[in-house]
Amino acid sequence: MEEREFKIKGLMMDPIASSPIVILQDVQKNTLLPIWVGVFEANAIALQIERIDTPRPMTHDLFKNMLLHLNAQVLKIVVTELKENTFFALIHLDMDGDIVTIDCRPSDAIAIALRTDAPIYVTEEVINNSRNVTLEKEGLDSEDIKKWLENISPEDLGEYKM
Questions:
Q1: Which of 52, 111, 126, 151 could form a disulfide with 44 if both were Cys (CB 3.0 to 4.6 A apart)?
Q2: H-state helical runs in the chain
Q3: CA 160 → CA 15, 35, 45, 64, distances in Å?
């Protein structure tokens, strides 16, 4: 299954549904992929993007600390599927030479990738099955993204679901 590397372009509020969205951008191209996430997960992602330390470990920090103590390393996270408007992801771990994959929500995978400096990948299948956009220009700003999002709905892209 072919994968492309993405990075986090930003975190913003959906101007229509008022729910958080993580905007991923292809490292090689200007393809953007928005993923609707929950408020708590968006907060965990935002705290790490801003490098804000909390007085006590948050859930994703706990996961990172457990991995360190178990001598496991996050190799990568992969957004693997888009089914019925819901994205799916896997965390790929190296545990003493054994490769282990763990099913999770993309929002949790992204929060963990940020904390462990692991790369973020998206399968070609997800890219092809989602309504993403390829932008011709560099330097995309939040106003450009907002205009684009106003013309689509969460049903087009994969709404966050528990």
A1: 111
A2: 39-49, 59-69, 106-116, 124-129, 142-150, 154-157
A3: 15, 7, 15, 23
- Non-local (6+) Cβ contacts of 50 within 8 A are none
Report d(CA 87, CA 126) in Å as an integer: 8
Q: What is the pLDDT of residues 4-54, one digit of tens each?
A: 999 998 888 877 777 898 999 999 987 889 898 988 888 888 888 888 888
Asked if 8 contacts 49 with a C-beta cutoff of 8 angstroms, the reply is yes
CA-closest candidate to residue 39, choices 132, 107, 110? 107
More confident residue, 145 or 53: 53
- Domain segments of the chain: what residues? 3-153
Instruction: Determine the Cα–Cα distance for residues 24 and 5; give it in Å rounded to an integer.
Output: 10
Is residue 153 scored above 90 in pLDDT? no
The answer for residues whose C-beta is within 8 angstroms of residue 20's C-beta and 6 or more apart is: 11, 12, 13, 14, 36, 37, 38, 39, 41, 42
